[in-house]
Amino acid sequence: MTSIYITWAVAVLAVLGVIIRPFSLPEAVFAVAGALILMLLGRIDLADALAGVEKGTDVYLFLIGMMLLSELARREGLFDWLAALATARAKGSPVRLFGLVYLVGIVVTALLSNDATAVVLTPAVYAATRAARLKNPMPYLLICAFIANAASFVLPISNPANLVIFSGGVMPPLPAWFATFALPSLVAIVVTYAALFFVCRHEIRTETLARDSVMPPLSRSASLAGAGLLLTAVILMAASALGFDLGLPTFITGTLTTLVVLLLTRQSPVETLKGVSWSVLPLVAGLFVLVEALDKTGLTQMLADVLKQQTVAHGTLAPFGAGLATGFLANLVNNLPAGLVAGATVAAAKAGSAVSGAVLIGIDLGPNLSVTGSLATILWLTALRREGLHMGAWAFLKIGAVVMIPALVLSLATLVAISG
Fold first, then answer.
1. Angle at Cα 321 formed by Cα 194 and Cα 115, nearest 5°?
2. pTM for this predicted structure
3. Domain ranges of the chain
4. Pick from 254, 281, 354: which is nearest to 26 by CA?
């Protein structure tokens, strides 16, 4: 048992390091350090660690493709053009701009995934707030973090964690997916909007929105970058419908779009590559190794036994409890590797569709509580730092508690009611 406690303790400390970031070190340092310490202590061998890293291959490819597209679009001025367009459509109303950004966030998350919302939409929203000369851009930037998770179960492709959870089983076809998640997803989106607007209402209503922003021209290269993003959305939808992994097509589309634009504009790829947040990749790899080590302690079987007992003891209330517990626990490890454990647990427990649906909602929506709950939020933090902005873990937690808890409770209640 001592070795199990050592593994758990190292994993917890590594995650705390990711959350707190002592000495302002990158999050990846602590995730990788935790993985290396477990290897040095003999809690996981090299083969198992590499197996853990390999499980994230599709995620790495997906992230590289999205980050390339985002950096390309930013450098070519697509975000500046979209920002000016959003500001013009807001017609001087900060409240209308808030709603417009939220609607765009829903579309981007549903069609391109929550990670894309963090990577692609965040710089566009920041550009919009600059164009509108807002005193405080944070309420609008918070949308990118919260809608990324709140709308991440609209479609199977809306969150890579959805694919991870069903990696050991069968992904429900789209009609079955909509029957299960359409109403809970709608509830999550509406409640998240209401709660976030309530939290930020004072900052929004006291803002003044510039009406005289100049609409920049849309260059040919920016148009190509935008076309690449749209093409990626179409390819992801097709890949999801056909049951293919999403990482490779995203990587290919992002790489080809970047090469075409750079060749047409005769630019060196160096600056674009320098702008990509490569540290996200070792962060994800480290988290996958930590989860692999935790799995070796028998954690999956322990959780499966608990899930079976709760299902027998509480019947129709079991999905609600499972989703609620998963939603809070996902914040301790990050929802992507937590999705691996959750998927294996549900499969081992032979849980029904209501329980598996509730667990998925917990994995997707629960991470709105903390800055490290989901990879999308970590990517959002990275995007903020590039703009010289900061959001502390405690400050986010205070907002997350108000926004996430009612959204999760009501979304799960909706699922239980329609499954009933």
1. 50
2. 0.81
3. 2-419
4. 281
